[in-house]
## 1
Amino acid sequence: MGSSLSPIIAEILVQYIFKTAIKTCRNPLRIAKFFVDDSFLIIKKRHFQYFFTHINNLEKSLENIKFTSELENSKGELPFLDIFISRLNGKLKTQVYRKPTHSNRYLNFHSYHCLENKKSVIRTLTHRAYTHNSDEHLMKNELKYINIVLENNNYPKKVVISTIEQTLEKIKQREASSDNEKIPIDFSKVISMPYINGVSDQIKRLLNKYEFKTVFKKGISVRSLLTNYRTNELTENHNLVYNIHCND
């Protein structure tokens, strides 16, 4: 999806198609959840083929849009996005799902990035472990796995453990709090600057004393200088589609 509007338009269209299909279908769905152009449905098996054919032949104007399907396996298991869903005794159990091709490579701790960026990797994985696992046992197993993976990406164990504990504590405090409204950000107090190791952190500490929030951005890299293939010819005109011929 090239344009930033593409996911929004795709989601609107998918919602429209599904709402129309559900209204005109003689067999009701138990559950229908959507994320952009992906959907998770619960429907009786004997009704599935009818609904699948129905939604793919809904309107003539949408005949170029065709949905594909993936059904649960014989064990009642089905991956959906980054969630692995399993059905047992009429109940759904969820846990974090990784594709077989997933490399477990994350931002390396020795890379030229600020510490806050590296900690955000830990916070993101911890938050996913908390939200995607349906019970405490699965969450603990996921957190152990995160520790191993991050250690392989050169994260110090002490940093990983402390960041995980802080993240879980903040999540629980937020859930326990009756006031879940986000505090608006005063952008007049936000300063953005390129990250320079050994310098930017000192500036950040100094600005923190005056209640300024510092955001580090990526500076100019060798890669950005060497991979800029755009020419003046491609930027002179607007509102058109370029056709660039490549030699075989």
## 2
Amino acid sequence: MESRLGRSQSPRVTAVPRHLSRCHCPEAPVFLLCAIHRPGAAGGVAAESSIGTWTDIGLEDKAIWERLHAKVIELDEASGKVVIAYPLDLFEAGNLAQFLSSIAGNIFGLKEITRLRIEDIDFPEIFVKAFPGPALGIEGVRALTGVADRPLLGSIIKPKLGLTSAKHADAAMQVWDNGLDLVKDD
């Protein structure tokens, strides 16, 4: 199987990880490919983005550490590419904001890391299925707007704060009256 470290492409998300057949830790089914350009920092990034500490603070139970810490499963020191595996128990089902704050939160602010880039994330199917998806989907939005044969056009009402409900509604009506389909509420 081709190594993930050799691929060069835009970030993407897949529903079924291809790594499981060769992964050393199948209990950690969320995979993150990132580029860390600092020798020796991969383990610290994995720890900081999972259990939240680089070092022993004396309060952790070893069983908690073993169950919840992320693991570096591939490392290419020459390119700085790292694959980190995260236990699914770290993440609340259906909570993308919590997931992103874990894997892409304060690790970008660590003074020890000067160049860090997330390149790919693979989610297990069970994690993806925890998200209900959009209420209507594109077909439902097209049916609601009556737009089937062209791109949907939208606008954002500004200022995003300070308008009364009536002024916001008036601005939205002007948008719709002038041919746009959607108004996004910031």
